[in-house]
Amino acid sequence: MDINQYMGMFLEESREHLQNLNSCVLELENAPDNLSVLGEIFRSAHTIKGMSATMGFTAIAELTHEMENILDMLRKSQLHANPDIIDTIFKCVDTLEQLVESVATNSENSIDCKPLIGKLKALAKGESTANTAIETKVEKMASKSSDIEFSDTELVVLKKAIAQGLQAYEITIYLREGCLLKSARSYMVMNALDEIGEVIKTIPTVDDLEKEKFDLSFQAIIVTGSDADKIQQTVLSISEIDKVVAVPCLLPETTTVQEKQQVTETKVAQVVPEDAVATTVSATVKNKGGQSVRVDIDKLDALLNLVGELVINKTRLEQIGLTHKLVDLVETMEQMDRVTTDLQSVVMKVRMVSVGQVFNRFPRMVRDLSHGLGKEINLIIQGEETELDRTVIDEIGDPLVHLLRNSIDHGIELPEERQAKGKNPIGEVRLIARYEGNNVIIMVEDDGKGINPDIIKGIAVKKGLITQLEADKMDTNEAVKLVFLPGFSTAEVITDVSGRGVGMDAVKNKIESLGGMVDVETKINEGSKFKIRLPLTLAIIQALLVNVSDEIYAIPLGSIDSTINIKSSELKTVQNKEVILLRGQIIPIVRLANVLDIPETKQEKEQDELFIVIVHLGDLRAGVIVDNLIGQQEIVIKSLGKLLAGIKVIAGATILGNGQVALILDIASLI
Amino acid sequence: MSEQTYSSSEIQLVVFKLGREEYGVSILQVQEIKRITEITRVPHTPEYIKGVINLRGSVLPVIDLKKRLNLPPQVATEDARIIIVKVKEISVGMMVDAVSEVMTINQQDIDYPDAVSGSISANYLSGVGKLDNRLLILLNLETITGIGQEATPS
Q1: How many angstroms away from the CA of A447 is the closest CA of chain B?
Q2: Residue A162 and which of A186, A355, A432, A470 are 20 to 30 A apart at CA?
Q3: Would you call A341 an interface residue with chain B, using a CB distance cutoff of 8 Å?
């Protein structure tokens, strides 16, 4: 079987389920008795098991199988979710993540799951005594039939039997490994059960049991006047039976009247047992329900390209209509304009992904980090529904990890220290996303000790990043920004959490490469706030088109401050470099014609009036001299392709309304 | 790619002219042939990169083949074309003086000389095809475009 075509799907879905597992187990840690969360964990684990088994990744399947056993016991209240179990489950999830990644990278699988599997088995066994004890305490086990679905007729029989005072049991029979005549054994079991009660349903069906279409275990639902012990004895009297678990099976209708009144009619309830109903309800709320289709991002890119092309051609048609004064055409084009604008915004929306996708993994990370550091931290996430372009989402994870780690490691103090300062011993880290105009703001805030500008200055001087003189002149704000310098690390002790000195400048570079900005505000003993500003999308931007000689270039509007018009006599030189004075600020001048190697012959004579575009990158500014301003336009960014990748000064290309290619300037390289 | 396509006994070539010499590339590598359109110059690129063009919405680099092969420059005529070739999944345009025909050539009519006399570096050749009294210079597109080797320095 060619499994490669399913590989992508497998990886993606596994990752999704692992992510889900992570957040659900976290939830379980806070509410160990939450059955709906358990149900969700179980389902995710089960799906991973099924998928990996199908794909032939036995290690994953084996581990999830053992996990499932534990989860099942938790679900049936045969085990209680204590910290040990939670930790083990977390470890399982981690190992599964590694396993899945090793599948993804096709690397040699050297992960040993045996200790974990052993641990899981031990956990399961440790409770097997309690297991039988519980079975006798019927009143303790609320209900419990895993995923058994009853048909209407079966339900009627069950109801009738219960009305007569009989009890329904869900019996799981495990045959001994190596059992030869499985069908015969199952037949004997059925016979024995028939003697003490009425078998209503078997899983798999009786037909399949006879054809041996089952593994080592099968289930039966039986109504009987006997109790669980009696059933077990009866079945165990048959040879080659390993284990019998009999659990009272309560019908959804009979058990959950009070909970279910809000669940309108019992259509769902008839098929799904009680606790599962609760889960489905909460799950649909949580997962926003709705139908969705998984689409390859390349296809979306292609779609966006086509829409971009459509827009370009529309502009051309408009121009034709205007030059030839074709009223009909112009009117039609106005209609068309509306449609294409809508189409464009829809396609852009399709590419948007909520930041929740990235944020999801942080609660787990914060938990592990804070445990490791002996700190107590409350992570508050807000605005996870804020959407960003897929390309940005893919890149934003690492910088955020850096910032969060920083806050946890350097920001939040140890509980004792916090108490001494009169703060709540539990630290607070906030991760907030929100829209602001055409940008998305992501903030990482903590209420820790803040950044001390004097210490920062001291370190920067000591590391030779700035001179003492420079340090003395800096105000607080500037000093704090020193953390973004390459090679800066404030941790006195290097921990494995952060403080390798690669953090903040890497963050800054990444964010800037995404067309964004990062800023920091801090107050000593009150905390720090890192603010990331990102463009909504990278694919279509507003740009200013300019002329240099007869060539046309586009400057992203996001990096333009203003455009000014000055006399050439206002150009000054400082150390042989041209500058202008703008509102008291000295701004260096860049002559585009020189930077772009525009041939001398094309270059026009020194004009008396100069058009200057003031651009900025973070706090840096520069004035770019151009020959003419053409106007503002929405442009679709195209790559120059692999052959021309990495040309400095040029960030990409775009296609103008007349079909001509214009290059987009890379402002960062000009400043 | 280019080498493998010559392994069958007959190959089809797109024949084009640069100055007075005739050249050929395997038809399997040719995507399309276009009239010269507006080419946008790209700064800080090697001299033989003529610029970029818009090919139905995508931006494509164009190589000035004569510059690349150190042939004397010449004003483009009406016959000038851009041949769009695909090398290792990357599309590149090549400016040529004229495209003359598509012809089939037998494998045994191709010579693989160690060094062909002539003006172009042997690096860019993959062979010479002999047909009656014509000589067809077969180009090695990978070295010409610089794809699959060191990225073109900027």
Answers
A1: 48
A2: A186
A3: no
- Among A88, A115, A113, smallest CA distance to A100 is for A113
> What is the model's pLDDT at position A381?
92
- Backbone φ and ψ for B8, nearest 5 degrees, come out as -75, 165
Question: Of the candidates A305, A308, A648, which has its C-beta nearest B154's C-beta?
Answer: A648
pTM of the model: 0.49
> Residue B151 and residue A645: Cβ atoms within 8 Å?
yes
Q: Is A487 left (phi over 0), alpha (psi -120 to 50) or beta?
A: left
Domains of chain A are 4-135 (1.20.120.160), 138-282 (3.30.70.1110), 297-351 (1.10.287), 354-451+490-535 (3.30.565.10), 540-670 (2.40.50.180)
Report the half-sphere exposure of A62 (CA within 13 A, side-chain side): 15
Contact A477, A391 (CB under 8 A): no
Mean pLDDT within A507-515: 79
Cross-chain Cβ contact B147/A642 below 8 Å = yes
- A262 burial class (0-12, 13-18, 19+ CB within 10 angstroms)? exposed
- Average pLDDT in the A149-161 region? 72
Most A CBs within 10 Å: which of B37, B39, B52, as the mutation test of the A interface? B52
The tens digit of pLDDT for each residue in A366-392 reads 888 888 888 888 899 999 888 888 878
User: What domains appear along chain B, each with residue ranges and CATH number?
Assistant: 2-145 (2.40.50.180)
In the block, residue with structure tokens 């079991």: A189
DSSP-derived secondary structure letter, A606:
P
Among residues A406, A410, A413, A445, the one annotated as catalytic is: A406
Q: How far is CA B14 from CA A135, A509, B22, B29, in A?
A: 82, 47, 10, 9
Mean pLDDT over A192-221 rounds to 78
In B, minimum Cα distance to A594 occurs at B43
Strand partners, A378: A428
With an 8 Å Cβ cutoff, is A494 touching chain B? no
User: Chain B residues with CB inside 8 Å of A642's CB?
Assistant: 90, 147, 151
Alpha-carbon dihedral sign for residues B120, B121, B126, B127:
positive
Q: Is the dihedral of CA A632, A637, A641, A644 positive or negative?
A: positive
Question: Does the predicted interface ipTM exceed a cut of 0.90?
Answer: no
Environment class of B24 (CB within 10 Å of its CB; exposed 0-12, middle 13-18, buried 19+): buried
Is the bond leading into A83 cis (omega within 30 degrees of zero)? no
A417 is catalytic: no
Q: Which of A40, A68, A395, A445 is catalytic?
A: A68
From A597's Cα to the closest Cα of chain B, the distance in A is 6
Which residues are within 8 A (CB) of A155 and not within 5 positions of it... i.e. 6 or more apart?
A: A251, A270
Residues A50, A293: contact at Cβ < 8 Å?
no
Would you call A597 and B43 a contact, using CB atoms and an 8 Å cutoff?
yes
Q: In what order do the strands lie in the sheet with A628-636?
A: A628-636, A540-548, A551-556, A661-665, A650-655
Instruction: Please state, in angstroms and rounded to a whole number, the distance separating the CA atoms of residues A295 and B50.
Output: 37
Residue of A nearest to B87 (CA): A643
Q: B128 to chain A nearest CA, in Å?
A: 27
* E strand intervals along chain B: 10-18, 21-26, 30-35, 49-55, 58-64, 81-87, 90-96, 98-106, 110-111, 125-131, 134-139
Contact residues on chain A for B40, CB-CB shorter than 8 A: 551, 653, 660-663
- Sorting pLDDT into bands at 50, 70 and 90, what band is B25? very high
Quickly state the pLDDT bin for A588 (edges 50, 70, 90).
Answer: very high
Scanning A590-609 for CB atoms below 8 A from B yields: 595-598
Residues 6+ apart with CB under 8 A from A341: none
**Interchain CB distance below 8 Å, B42 and A662:** no
At A325, the pLDDT band (50, 70, 90 cuts) reads: confident
Using CB atoms within 10 Å of the CB of residue A84, give its burial: 0 to 12 exposed, 13 to 18 middle, 19+ buried: exposed
